[in-house]
Amino acid sequence: xxxxxxxxxxxxxxxxxxxxxxxxxxxxxxxxxxxxxxxxxxxxxxxxxxxxxxxxxxxxxxxxxxxxxxxxxxxxxxxxxxxxxxxxxxxxxxxxxxxxxxxxxxxxxxxxxxxxxxxxxxxxxxxxxxxxxxxxxxxxx
Length: 141
Fold this sequence. Notes:
Helix content is about 45%, strand content about 20%. By secondary structure, it is α/β, with parallel strands linked by helices. It has one domain (about 25-140): Periplasmic binding protein-like II (D-Maltodextrin-Binding Protein, domain 2, 3-Layer(aba) Sandwich), CATH 3.40.190. The strands form 2 sheets. Strands 4-3-5-1-6 form a 5-stranded mixed β-sheet.
């Protein structure tokens, strides 16, 4: 293989690996929950503790994936407009001042989906490829 052939092949392999590493994160709720769409602002308010209910009046309780999860980092950037460090600082401040505590952390997409499917109060995010019939993807406006 010549150097001319090697560089484009190596570059293409790297691009494919990067695309695979970035998950398509979606927001989910239980199929028992009547919510079908939310705004980015509503999602942000729920995940930052500024709102505890869906627009339907039903209780809203966010669940989070573990620190360092690529889906978590993408969700924070895309839906909260913050880095993981900024969200951690937000919750440290809220907790210290007695205004709330960070969402419960679930270790895997499978466990997260199971919890959300079982309880309509939960809202979470996962890689779109992990979604199953027990949950539904919320349209974000």
